[in-house]
Design brief:
It is a single chain. The protein is α/β, with parallel strands linked by helices. 44% of the residues lie in helices and 13% in strands. It contains eleven helices and six strands. Helix 9 links the parallel strand 5 and strand 6.
């Protein structure tokens, strides 16, 4: 059976952040689907709830699993949700997981500081869009630069989404994961804070640190990230 790939975006962005990966997977003949989480992308205007976010993953994974083994791929918030989902008490039909830019527990002072920063940026003129555009122009190559904002920015649900992540029991979930697991971090990613802890919790996992990249590793070095996807698919025995 042909492997199926389900991709889960990070906070504020949408399914469009995966355009480079979707194009590469299509070129390899591998079916893939990038979801929009509640309040994001095509679902802008909906409220973000943890229940609905996990239901979105579950619906996409189960639909894909009818056609073949599922590789779940999540970035940032999407990576945290994917870890929680894959390591749930009721084992889902996930055959492998790539968790990118998400090796930090979303709680305590770090989460509080991130929420304050996000709120401060959101209060700027134009809700800080000019600052976001300037940061992307400085760090992302032209061919992927527009992918993060193409589906719009989910600023109205950002704080609710961040707040909801604090209730996830990630250490318990990560310990339960038995399928192939690949962590991917940019060298300068701020969410590497608990990288060593995540590795201890799941010793069979592999860690890839991509040089000269920060949090937006999928867009900064898409060829490298796609090579990790190739390896993950090979681990499923479907390449």
């Amino acid at each position: 059976m042909t492997a199926q790939v389900v991709l889960v975006h990070g906070i504020r962005t949408s399914a469009t952040m995966w355009r480079s990966q979707l194009a590469w997977l299509a070129g390899q003949g591998i079916p893939a689907h990038a979801v929009d989480l509640p309040g994001h992308g095509t679902r802008m205007g909906e409220d973000f709830t943890l229940h609905e976010a996990l239901h979105t993953l579950d619906s996409a994974v189960r639909a894909a699993a009818d056609r073949g083994p599922v590789l779940l791929v999540g970035h940032s918030m999407g990576g945290l949700l994917s870890l929680a989902y894959t390591g749930g008490a009721d084992v889902p039909p996930v055959a492998g997981l790539v968790a990118a830019s998400c090796t930090a527990l979303p709680r305590g002072a770090a989460l509080g500081a991130y929420r304050l920063l996000a709120g401060a940026v959101n209060s700027l003129p134009g809700r800080g869009r000019w600052l976001t555009d300037r940061m992307l122009a400085a760090t992302i190559p032209p061919e992927t630069r527009d992918d993060f904002g193409a589906g719009g920015y989910a600023l109205d649900v950002q704080d609710a989404a961040l707040r909801s992540l604090a209730v996830l029991d990630l250490p318990t979930a990560i310990r339960r994961i038995q399928v192939p697991l690949l962590f991917v971090n940019g060298q300068f990613d701020q969410l590497r804070a608990h990288e060593a802890l995540f590795q201890r919790l799941v010793p069979h996992a592999e860690l890839f640190v991509v040089p000269r990249t920060s949090h937006l590793v999928t867009a900064m070095r898409p060829d490298v990230f796609n090579a990790v996807l190739r390896l993950a698919l090979a681990k499923l025995g479907t390449w």
